[in-house]
Amino acid sequence: MKKSIKYLFSLCLLSLLSVGCEDVLDVVPPGEFSPGNVLNNEAGLTSLLFSAYRFQNLQTGHKNLINMEEVTTDMAFNTGGGENRTLSLFINFTWDPSVGWIQGSMWNPHYNAIRDANIILENIETADIQPATASLLTAEARYIRASEYAFLYNWFGPVPLRTSTSQEESLPRAREDELLGFIESELEAILADLPDPGQEPQWGRATKGHALGILTKFYLNTKQWAKVVETTQRILDLNYYELFPVFKDLFKVENEGNKELLVAWPQINDPGSGNTYPNGAFPPNFSYSPLLPEYVWSTSMANWATQYRLRDDFVDSYAAEDQRLITIVQEYVNRNGDMVNLRNNPNNSRSLKYFDPAAVANFHGNDSPIVRFADILLSRAEALNELNGPSQEALDLINQVRSRAGLPDLTLADAGSKEILRDRILAERGWEFVSEGKRREDLIRHGNFIERAQNRGISAQPHHVLFPIPAAEINANPAVEQNPGY
């Protein structure tokens, strides 16, 4: 059975000076490594590649990103515990450049991944490595670098474009066209050297699906509708991806690597490598949800004081028969055997997409979905609608997602106008992608992120569509200008 990259994360010490994973990689024994030779061979460069993947995939960072992307919207809420001191800043739109999560989850890990990718690219041509392997590692490093810039652009707008380790530390932000052109050209250039999906050496490493999936979301969020249509067609033409049959089972550990996942960040129930989101999603004294009886809390798991909650208006927008509601906990049995109705308190339902029966303390092994095939279908439908208004093709794409959820097909009469179908697609995306960290970007793209916050009584301003460059970065790199409003 093909090893997942998550096990490489767990088994390998991801440093430049120590590598050793039996039956996973053909590596030089740790004693033969030294600062002088670590970047001259396949083992050292592969270790550094996994370090770059690792920075992209920091478990606490992803939990933080989900929350920062959702409590800023009409979807999610938070109370309790130490995390609320930070999350309340995002709920109330009072974040500023000094907020540690912005630097620690949005900025530093992603630039660390870019740094590792750059080191690989600067050393691979002179390394003792087979040409085919060199081409693959080069493509993966360029994929990581370009995808990280796509994420950074989504949060901050144009950022410093670091493509080598020899650039000056004081580097200004790239022009917008420069950064966007780099992301697009890099992802396009590497496609020929990336494996087809299912042919990657380990699950979690980049494939053509990864590059095309990130390109699709990049084009979608920059409203390049024709390119969304073209890129999603290339994904369909791979004849590989499909919707997983049962929505609630899609996220289970035993179904990792399924064909719905174009891009996923692997997790394992191990310190430093686990999905920690469920710990805050569990309500107090949680035992199990009647709708998910297979998810039974055990004493080996955590149940944090901080509470990741969903807003009532969002939960109430689901159709009663929507099968995705099964993963939304509105009542549960506590560890005393009592039934607890979460709806007795406002904004108190929970998303329980992620649960690992073998979780250890804070760490669940559920992979973090980044781009799913459902996203590709809905992105294509959105682009088709923006280009030409409602069409049967767009509805057929949406209806694939709705059918799995147990909902009736939409018709052209239901679609009405471009504006009506646009709103329907946005709603569908909310029901499909809750607790996956997509709501903020969706609302920004639809132009109602600020308005919906203001409707909740928040003093949101236009500049809040971007986060501030971290204060520490401004202090370290005076050539970087802060985003307006901060």
Structure, briefly:
InterPro entries: SusD-like_N, SusD_RagB_dom, TPR-like_helical_dom_sf. The protein has helices at residues 5-11, 42-56, 59-70, 84-91, 100-123, 131-156, 176-189, 208-221, 225-237, 277-281, 312-316, 373-388, 392-404, 412-415, 418-433, 439-445, 449-455, 471-476, and strands at residues 76-79, 261-265, 286-288, 307-310, 328-329, 331-334, 339-341, 350-351, 368-372. It has 486 residues and is mostly helical.
List the defining traits of the structure above.
Serine Threonine Protein Phosphatase 5, Tetratricopeptide repeat; 44% helix; 486 residues; mainly alpha; globular; 18 helices; two-stranded antiparallel ribbon; 3 domains; single chain
Task: Explain how this protein is built.
Residues 362-486 form the RagB/SusD domain. Its main location: membrane. This is RagB/SusD family nutrient uptake outer membrane protein. InterPro entries: SusD-like_N, SusD_RagB_dom, TPR-like_helical_dom_sf. The chain folds into three domains: 1-193 and 453-486, Serine Threonine Protein Phosphatase 5, Tetratricopeptide repeat, CATH 1.25.40.390; 195-248 and 257-263 and 368-446, Alpha Horseshoe (Serine Threonine Protein Phosphatase 5, Tetratricopeptide repeat), CATH 1.25.40.900; 277-366, no CATH class. It contains 18 helices and nine strands. It has helices at residues 5-11, 42-56, 59-70, 84-91, 100-123, 131-156, 176-189, 208-221, 225-237, 277-281, 312-316, 373-388, 392-404, 412-415, 418-433, 439-445, 449-455, 471-476, and strands at residues 76-79, 261-265, 286-288, 307-310, 328-329, 331-334, 339-341, 350-351, 368-372. The strands form four sheets. Strands 3-6-7 form a three-stranded antiparallel beta sheet, with no helix packed on it. A two-stranded antiparallel ribbon has the order 1-4. Helix 6 runs antiparallel to helix 7 (176-189) and helix 12 packs antiparallel against helix 13 (392-404).
